[in-house]
Amino acid sequence: MRGLVVILVVVLTRAVAGQCPGFGDCCVANGSAACDNAACCVEVCTSDPFCCSVQWDLNCATLANNLCAVCGAGCPGTGNCCSDNGTPACDDFFCCELVCTGNPFCCDVSWDALCAQQAGVLCSACFPPPDCPGGGDCCAPNGSPSCDDAECCAIVCAVDAFCCESLWDNICADTAAQLCSLCAPVCADPVLEAPGTGISPESASAGDQLVVTYVVANPSVCGFPLRLVCFMAPIGGGPTLASPECDEVVTSQAGMVGTFTRCFNVPAPVLPGLYNVTYQIADPQSGAVLDAFSGLDLVILSQGDLTGDGEVGMIDFLLLLKDWGPCVFCANCPADFDRDCQVGINDLLILLANWGGLV
Questions:
Q1: CA-to-CA distance for 141 and 290, rounded, in angstroms?
Q2: Same domain, 207 and 250
Q3: 250 vs 284: CA distance, rounded Å
Q4: Would you say the C-alpha torsion 45, 50, 53, 54 has a positive or negative sign?
Q5: Per the domain annotation, does 161 fall within a domain?
Q6: How far is CA 33 from CA 44, 48, 54, 64, 68, in A?
Q7: Which of 87, 161, 253, 335 is 20 to 30 A off residue 55, Cα-Cα?
């Protein structure tokens, strides 16, 4: 039975071949039997003998447009280039063109086992990809397929198979930079620069506002969120003074030295004396201190010490009397201890309460 089928197919093919080519355009209904391209004529009439025995009608033209390269049914097709796909052409344009240039049958008639074998030799799409990892740097064009980190290699080649099949080029390296933590830029911790970092004025009383200046150097290749912190501890012990004005998140700029200014309100009451001021930069999320240093650079004066000599006495009393009455400038009125913009009885009582030297 199988032999009879083969004989019938051979007879039919020979009959069709004897009528091809004809005279009409293969790609349109031409009103005649057969058409003018031999390969397309045989292809269509083998599928539908009516097209050669009776008339090349619209159905025949549709078949030609689906099957024949002469009607634009060439590359790319729909079948897999690396296997016998049973259709003309295959789904990779460059491989399809490469094979069909040497063997038109693959696009004109059928992409058979011979076409697939040729694709296996000629087309990178059919080369087995090398195992990850390879030997080159994942984060740079390395001149070879694949790269030296298995995880990154697999991630990139899943997105762009060319990187493993042909060449790890600059596009592969850029993809690795975006997707692989291996290639992420390393951010150096920012550091506090002691020169220029400080607090002013270097002496203050309760109610005064201090200006804290931080100089932060960030030599890394990326920016870094920072929490700037300052706090003060009296020498000899006592409560630590801190201020939310100093505890703010900023972002240092990559590779630059930045100056940040914060304010610090000295609370009242406050213990007079010499204070050790500590400066810190910390990670806002973990709270880990990245860099810090301390300096003996602040004297907290007793309220009433107008001379700044560390004790409240007769000269301070006389200076207060000299400024008695409304302040000309509220922000620059040292004897106005209670900050009501005038020097009066409350300020005198504060001075007398602090009479004597520093505690």
A1: 35
A2: yes
A3: 9
A4: negative
A5: yes
A6: 12, 12, 6, 14, 17
A7: 87
Mark which of 71, 92, 107 sits at the end of a domain.
71
CB proximity list for 332: less than 8 A, separation 6 or greater: none
Q: Quick one: which of 112, 107, 113 has its CA closest to 93?
A: 107
Helix (H) or strand (E) holding 114: helix 113-122
In a domain, residue 5? The reply is: no
The count of structural domains within the chain is: 4
One domain for residues 316 and 344: yes
* Domain termination site, one of 300, 322, 345: 300
> What is the number of other CB atoms lying within 10 angstroms of the CB of residue 267?
12
Calculate the CA dihedral of residues 144, 145, 148, 151 and round it to 10 degrees: 160
Are 235 and 264 in contact by the 8 Å Cβ rule? The answer is no
3-state secondary structure of 38: helix
Q: Which two tokens stand for residue 12?
A: 């039919």
pLDDT of residue 6: 31
Confidence at 97, pLDDT banded by 50, 70, 90: confident
Q: Are 255 and 295 found together in one domain?
A: yes
Do 262 and 235 fall into the same domain?
yes
Dump strand ranges (E) for 148-287: 191-192, 198-200, 203-204, 209-218, 224-234, 241-242, 248-252, 256-265, 273-282
Give the span between the Cα atoms of 171 and 179, in whole angstroms. 12
pTM more than 0.70: no
Question: Does 315 score more than 70 pLDDT?
Answer: yes
- 127-175: pLDDT as tens digits: 665 678 888 899 999 888 899 998 898 888 878 888 888 889 999 998 9
Q: Report d(CA 185, CA 139) in Å as an integer.
A: 11
What is the residue range of 243's domain?
A: 191-300
Type and span of the H or E element at 19: helix 2-19
